Structure to design on (484 residues):
């Protein structure tokens, strides 16, 4: 039986209308009032690139809701007070939302549920962001996995993820009149300076764009994914990570769309490609499982022995890394891609992180914070787990003594230098043989390419061979002290 009282639906990291379990349930109960709250009172509030994306994502969502005759109320402030106040103002019978899994959000939402229920308001939360709840997949001893491969196997052997649900046939908007902010009032877009123009060229934002991107990848890019995803010079990755983070598409939709391709496509090897894509979706799930089990994952090493690691903080080195001025071309190309597009190829993320942590001996937390501010797909779980993996302090981590050689990595994965030339135009005329190590080029070659090391392009800020040795010395020191 439909209620005459409205249900308050709270949009969060689920800025879409399809596969919206909480919204579907709310629509079944009667009229719906929709709200989005920009809550900067919690730890790890959004960085600059994410705010830019949020502005455009909410613009798209407002447009889609308007077609259904449903307004989107915008409020800025502490959700712990806004939600109860708004529920009271509209006389809500219930409040529905899809769950978040960041530690601060869990604490806030738990307190909110108690407060609302004590006030006589029904509360329900749903899974709209993951294939599996982070408490569902555990090892034989009943604890969370710390190694990815058995975690992934456990996921694949578990019950299949829930099928995506369709957009509700009708969403009855509640007949209410409550004040709302405007997006312009939030000032999410950069102005002085406006660094977002390259991002605008790189991305189309919103639910429709998310599905278009996924469809194009599955139709045109999937066949080369398993090996090609390591090639930054090629468009072989899905690039759906920001859409997943903001919930413009759900992992269930991506999972079942890929499965459908595997079931309907007779092309040789397509199942291998689909399996690799699903494995990457499961790495995201693994990251959320880790964050849920270890709430301090964004700040503290999971392997506590690394608390004693002898970092050598150096602002000059860190600034050179941030701005793509290390003198190591593959790393600088990645850092410039990040600044220009709000995204960096996954292989290059690992190379750049390895240089910062292991060759420069800078704390991984500094790099994670920079990515948090500059990535459009900045996701607390994935960002934290991935940085700890490179640092050697995380779950299933790359051993500390595994140090990427950025020259060899560039030569292997950007063999013709197309990626480096795209983002470091000052090296564009340098012959490929020297492109990934310009300091090795003869003076005549540099001159012919218009390159002046130390002037038009930096000398390397660290000696790769010596810095690798120093990193291994630091690792051995911990080992000898019994810390590892």
């Amino acid at each position: 039986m439909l209620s005459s009282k409205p249900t308050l639906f709270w949009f969060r990291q689920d800025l879409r209308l399809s596969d919206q379990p909480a919204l579907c349930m709310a629509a079944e109960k009667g009229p719906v009032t929709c709200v989005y709250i920009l809550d900067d009172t919690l730890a790890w509030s959004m960085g600059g690139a994410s705010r830019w994306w949020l502005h455009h994502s909410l613009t798209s969502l407002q447009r889609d809701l308007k077609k259904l005759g449903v307004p989107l109320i915008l409020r800025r402030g502490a959700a712990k007070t806004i939600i109860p106040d708004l529920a009271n103002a509209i006389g809500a019978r219930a409040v529905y939302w899809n769950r978040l899994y960041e530690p601060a959000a869990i604490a806030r939402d738990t307190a909110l549920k108690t407060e609302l229920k004590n006030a006589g308001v029904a509360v329900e939360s749903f899974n709209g962001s993951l294939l599996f709840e982070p408490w569902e997949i555990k090892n034989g001893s009943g604890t969370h996995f710390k190694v990815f491969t058995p975690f992934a196997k456990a996921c694949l052997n578990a019950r299949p993820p829930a099928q995506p649900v369709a957009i509700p046939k009708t969403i009855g908007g509640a007949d209410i009149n409550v004040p709302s902010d405007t997006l312009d009032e939030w000032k999410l877009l950069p102005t002085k300076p406006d660094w977002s123009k390259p991002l605008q060229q790189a991305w189309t934002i919103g639910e429709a764009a998310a599905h278009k991107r996924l469809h194009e990848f599955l139709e045109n890019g999937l066949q080369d994914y398993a090996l090609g995803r390591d090639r930054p010079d090629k468009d072989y990755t899905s690039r759906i990570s920001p859409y997943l983070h903001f919930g413009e598409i759900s992992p269930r939709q991506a999972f079942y769309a890929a499965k459908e391709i595997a079931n309907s496509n007779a092309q040789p090897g397509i199942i291998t490609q689909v399996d690799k894509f699903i494995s990457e979706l499961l790495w995201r799930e693994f990251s959320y499982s880790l964050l849920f089990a270890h709430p301090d994952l964004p700040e503290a090493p999971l392997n506590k022995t690394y608390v004693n690691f002898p970092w050598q903080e150096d602002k000059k080195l860190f600034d050179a890394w941030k701005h793509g001025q290390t003198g190591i071309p593959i790393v600088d190309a990645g850092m410039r891609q990040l600044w220009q597009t709000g995204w960096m190829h996954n292989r290059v993320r690992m190379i750049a992180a390895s240089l910062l942590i292991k060759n420069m001996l800078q704390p991984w937390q500094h790099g994670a914070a920079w990515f948090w501010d500059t990535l459009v797909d900045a996701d607390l779980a994935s960002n934290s787990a991935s940085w700890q993996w490179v640092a050697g302090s995380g779950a299933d981590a790359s051993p500390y003594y595994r140090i990427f050689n950025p020259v060899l990595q560039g030569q292997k994965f950007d063999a013709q230098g197309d990626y480096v030339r795209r983002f470091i135009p000052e090296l564009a005329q340098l012959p490929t043989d020297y492109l990934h190590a310009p300091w090795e080029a003869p003076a005549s070659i540099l001159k012919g390419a218009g390159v002046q090391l130390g002037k038009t392009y930096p000398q390397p800020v660290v000696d790769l061979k010596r810095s690798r040795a120093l990193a291994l010395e630091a690792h051995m020191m911990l080992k000898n002290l019994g810390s590892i």
The chain has a mean pLDDT of 95.
